[in-house]
Design a protein that fits this description.
The complex is a heterodimer of chains A (about 170) and B (about 525).
Chain A: H1 2-11, H2 23-28, E1 32-33, H3 38-41, E2 45-51, H4 57-64, E3 77-79, E4 88-92, H5 100-109, E5 115-119, H6 121-125, E6 147-149, H7 156-167
Parallel strand pairs in A: 2-3, 2-4, 4-5, 5-6
Antiparallel strand pairs in A: 1-6
Chain B: H1 3-18, E1 24-27, E2 32-35, H2 41-50, E3 54-63, E4 66-75, E5 78-87, E6 92-94, H3 103-114, E7 117-119, E8 170-175, E9 187-193, E10 196-203, H4 211-215, H5 220-227, H6 235-250, H7 256-284, H8 288-309, E11 318-319, E12 322-323, H9 329-354, H10 357-363, H11 371-376, H12 381-385, H13 393-396, H14 417-441, E13 459-465, E14 470-477, E15 483-489, H15 491-502, H16 511-518, H17 522-526
Parallel strand pairs in B: 2-5, 6-7
Antiparallel strand pairs in B: 1-2, 3-4, 4-5, 8-9, 9-10, 11-12, 13-14, 14-15
Helix pairs in contact in B: 5-6, 6-7, 7-8, 7-14, 7-16, 8-9, 9-14, 14-16
Classes of the chains: A alpha/beta (about 170), B alpha+beta (about 525).
Chain lengths: ~170, ~525
């Protein structure tokens, strides 16, 4: 137990500072924010992550948001277990046709007002997989999308900027 | 290597001849290829099993006017590709799944995608087939267009016949495809009594996005990009396996320099994933200290990846003919320092895990996989190695750089969640040693060998030990430098069925940690 505390104290706080990005910075990063939602959600964002066909690369970077460097909970951003508790659906992957109904039902299960973020190149435009017998391509082909964060996969910095850009 | 191992193929051939099975012997670049008549498909598997051969992979292909079926067997590093063909007009042949349980889902894959009819198959329910293509359509047949003719909204698959549990107090828990955490989609159906799991059935295929079909007609560069996105956590290993298969088909030898860089990338990927998962396994039993420390180390590691190779997950670093990046002397020095620092950190953190009794309480004996079951289901990677399966493609099917390096294959026989965790801890140390050797010995040379158009119809099999286990990738070219068939066998394909075994008699709340200790890839499995 002593070792545990010693290591914890020795590690210290590694969390990094992030300021909220300006509109121009978001544009520069290619992050597309269609609507301002600060009125509804300032200070808190409950996110339901939905992998709709991703290769798991985006999930790895979304996981990283919870590591001590980024620690998104301090901004009031937290990942929830059910769409019923969510303000935002964070959707990754080209939407596989086998996940299409599941995604639609998840969207329906999310109470209004709700927003959808398409994270990663596949979610933005279909990426390497495009539209085929098995893939619907971009998330916007299945449900309405409000914010697009590109990247293959988007880095945690890009994801944070996109999320903070939404909260303004 | 024992006498028996080196001679198993000769014994197999003799046995086949004794049974009057006609064998047409030829060879691929790295292994013999034997063609036998379809009616002997199962008896050949029985003979292979009699010689303790491991079922490695199985796939089908529509080629020169017929369907070809392939099974790859191995005893240690001695691989053998067995092939048969059936005419397009009559796609029946005996199933091997009654002999090798690992062949079960693989044959259902061929059934759903090609319309191959396996006789006496123990379980011929659809597997990858949900509702995205119609009853008599088979997406991997050449006459099926990539676009298909899907409905505007694909209906959910409500017809799958799950196994039912009956009796007083038996209840069912359906989970997924959308899970509670940040993980990939899949469906799990539990039958439980009280807290105890009586039975678990997996239903996968939700992230099937047509990778095999999309690959057809691609150039080698495009295939390498696609292979890097089969499973995002194994981007290095999958693109290496695909490139190796293509290079074999084209008869290209990459430079030792490029091979060493590939090795460095592969070991860096292994360490990154092992660190992330060790933290996550501890987190699944509520030990946040380990989660915070290991996600911190992983983040530092990924930042170095970006510094050295311009990508946190190392995507697109491996290209046909070599690699797209190299290491400066300065970067090599920095990486050596980083390895030293990582070792020191681990030496401080690991005793806190080892001496933690509550962690021990949750992980020891949980999710036990016997050596017998692991062998029967052809388990690979750390799942196999924690249950006594002494397999590692880096040693058994070596290529540069591994054939010039010294390393220990970590094997344990305890077979529980704790053992799978500690095998991975020890593999991190083994990988650090490998990285040191590669940085030390990195030969000079070009990063890329020029591509040569492969002969029409040429084929190759790339075998690479990724962090999850052995990846086996089959590639065939057409007559125009384009891909005619691509089948990557992710280690998850053979390891997923074992999750159904290891959770039996565990409590339902232990399922997440059992699942994480195995950590199959949904995307790598569903393709």
């Amino acid at each position: 137990m002593l070792r545990l505390f010693v290591k914890t104290l020795k590690t210290g706080v590694v969390t990094e500072r992030f300021r909220k990005p300006k509109q121009s910075e978001l544009e520069q990063l290619g992050i597309e924010v269609k609507r301002h939602i600060d009125k509804y959600f300032s200070g808190s964002l409950a996110i339901r992550e939905v992998d709709a066909g991703s290769c798991n690369g985006c999930e790895l970077e979304i996981h990283a948001l919870n590591n001590p460097f980024y620690d998104v909970e301090r901004f009031g951003i937290h990942f929830v277990a059910s769409p019923r508790h969510a303000d935002v659906l964070l959707v990754t992957g080209p939407v596989s046709r086998h996940m299409q109904t599941a995604l639609l039902r998840t969207y329906e299960a999310t109470p209004n007002p709700k927003w959808v973020i398409a994270a990663g190149d596949c979610a933005a435009c279909g990426g390497e997989f495009g539209v085929s017998y098995a893939s619907c391509g971009a998330v916007a082909n299945v449900i309405p999308v409000d914010v697009v964060i590109p990247g293959c996969p988007p880095s945690p910095e890009m994801l944070i900027k996109g999320l903070l850009g939404m909260m303004r | 290597m024992s006498h028996r191992e080196s001679n198993w193929r000769a014994e197999f051939l003799a046995e086949l001849k004794k049974q009057h099975i006609q064998v047409e012997v030829s060879a691929l670049a790295t292994m013999p290829l034997w063609q036998i008549p379809a009616k002997h498909w199962r008896s050949a598997a029985e003979l292979a099993q009699g010689l303790s051969a491991r079922w490695v992979s199985g796939w089908a292909e529509q080629h020169s006017g017929q369907y070809e079926l392939n099974t790859l067997f191995a005893v240690r590093g001695d691989f053998l590709l067995l092939r048969t063909s059936v005419p397009e007009s009559n796609t029946e042949l005996p199933s091997q799944a009654t002999v090798y349980p690992a062949a079960n889902r693989s044959e259902r894959h061929a059934q759903d995608m090609f319309g191959i009819h396996f006789l006496d198959h123990p379980d011929n329910r659809p597997w990858l087939r949900h509702k995205a293509w119609k009853k008599h359509q088979y997406p991997l047949r050449k006459d099926f267009p990539l676009s298909g003719d899907p409905e505007p909204v694909t209906a959910p698959d409500m017809d799958y016949q799950f196994v039912k549990g009956r009796g007083a107090g038996v209840y069912e828990i359906p989970v997924g495809p959308v899970h509670a955490g940040i993980i990939e989609p899949g469906h799990f159906r539990f039958q439980a009594v009280g807290e105890t799991v009586l039975n678990l059935e997996e239903r996968l295929g939700y992230v099937h996005k047509g990778i095999e079909k999309t690959a057809e007609g691609r150039t080698p560069e495009q295939l390498a990009r696609l292979a890097g996105r089969i499973s995002g956590d194994s981007t290095v290993a999958h693109s290496w396996a695909a490139c190796r298969a293509m290079e074999q088909a084209a008869g290209i030898a990459i430079s030792p320099h490029a091979a060493f860089i590939r090795g460095i990338l592969n070991e860096r990927e292994r360490i990154a994933n092992h660190m992330g998962d060790i933290g996550a396994i501890c987190n699944d039993v509520g030990f946040a200290f380990a989660q915070m420390q290991f996600t911190r180390l992983r983040e530092l590691w990924l930042r170095s990846n970006r510094q050295f190779f311009a990508h946190r997950l190392l995507m697109d670093c491996i290209v046909p003919g070599g690699v797209s990046c190299s290491l400066t002397d300065e970067a090599r020095a920095t990486m050596r320092q980083e390895l030293k620092a990582l070792r020191k950190e681990l030496d401080e953190i690991l005793p806190a895990l080892d001496l933690n009794s509550s962690l021990e309480d949750r992980l020891l004996t949980a999710g036990w996989l016997s050596e017998k079951t692991a062998a029967a289901f052809s388990a690979v990677g750390y799942v196999g190695r924690a249950s006594g399966q002494d397999l590692d493609a880096r040693r058994d099917a070596p290529c540069l750089p591994y054939e010039r390096l010294n390393f220990e294959v970590i094997v344990e026989s305890q077979g529980d969640v704790a053992s799978r965790l500690w095998v991975r801890v020890r593999e991190i140390f083994a990988s650090i040693k490998l990285l040191r050797q590669m940085l030390e010995q990195l030969p000079a040379g070009v990063i890329q060998t020029p591509w040569q158009t492969p002969a029409a119809d040429s084929e190759g099999i790339g075998i690479i030990e990724g962090w999850r286990g052995e990846i086996v990738t089959f590639v065939r070219f057409d007559d125009n430098n384009q891909i005619a068939r691509f089948y990557p066998r992710d280690p998850s394909v053979v390891n997923w069925p074992l999750l159904e075994k290891i959770v039996l008699n565990n409590s339902v709340p232990d399922f997440p940690v059992c699942n994480k200790s195995l950590n199959g890839s949904y995307s790598g499995h569903d393709l």
